[in-house]
Design brief:
255 residues; seven-stranded mixed beta sheet
């Protein structure tokens, strides 16, 4: 089976006229994620900085719009993607989610985990607990361990219809998907750890002192003993590297 790579994007509705026919018509972030979610048969693994796929008129940034204005902003793709996740769980797909704490709660993912407790599992990774600041910002979707999306779109209806976003969808490439799955497994393990930062250590890259995990290389600079890294497991290491690149063939062209 030939592996395929496709650039996908989101364009603000009303500012750009989306393609109505041809290959470009299917290259929107929303249509790609919806199609792959609806086609998933066994697993979906994804990361989310926050959740806002559903329009909520009670949210401060969505309140006060006149009738019809929200409809014109096109919230439907976000709703469709959210419900596709629920439909996937309903047909037996196992869904794992690594997420940041979010801005206004995590009601959407909590609803999924409560509805499908044996199929949807979410772990929250608060980088502040480890480093005194920062967020889990990666946007990664893995489908059936053979298709994936990597890009800039957040789990937000605006990222599908109101914000310029760019990403790539790769399909039918299990070896490369395996490398990304190893990265995902590292996030998954990290999110399961009980936060245990070490007292502030000076970080020369940012010119400030900050808390760090016990396995941080910054501790060695201070002469402090490091704890074993939970990510030293070879099972989490990428199979490919600059010295040993993974051969790929996308859209009929070897690379």
């Amino acid at each position: 089976m030939t592996s395929r790579a496709t650039l996908v994007e989101s364009l603000p509705a009303g500012l750009f006229e989306p393609p109505r026919s041809g290959a470009a018509a299917g290259h929107s972030t929303a249509s790609a994620l919806l199609r792959l979610t609806e086609a998933a048969q066994e697993t979906i693994d994804l990361t989310a900085m926050y959740w806002s796929l559903l329009h909520d008129p009670q949210r401060a940034d969505e309140a006060g719009f006149p009738p019809g204005a929200i409809t014109a902003l096109q919230t439907e793709p976000g709703r469709a993607l959210y419900h596709a996740l629920g439909s996937a769980a309903a047909r037996g797909v196992r869904i794992r989610i690594v997420q940041s704490p979010g801005f206004d709660g995590l009601d959407e993912v909590e609803a999924l985990t409560e509805r499908f407790p044996d199929r949807v599992e979410a772990r929250t990774l608060n980088m502040r607990d480890w480093f005194g600041g920062g967020i889990m910002h990666q946007k990664l979707w893995l489908f059936d361990r053979r298709h994936f999306y990597v890009g800039s779109a957040n789990m937000d209806w605006r990222a599908l219809t109101q914000v310029k976003e760019l990403g790539v969808v790769v399909e039918d490439d299990p070896p490369l998907a395996e490398d990304l799955l190893r990265l995902y497994e590292a996030w998954w393990r990290f999110a399961a750890l009980e936060p245990a930062p070490v007292a502030d250590v000076y970080d020369p890259q940012i010119g400030l002192s900050r808390p760090v995990p016990g396995w941080s290389s910054l501790l060695a600079r201070e002469g402090v003993a490091q704890t074993p890294s939970p990510f030293a497991d070879p099972a989490l290491a990428a199979r490919s590297s600059l010295d040993d690149p993974l051969p790929v063939s996308w859209n009929g062209a070897a690379g």
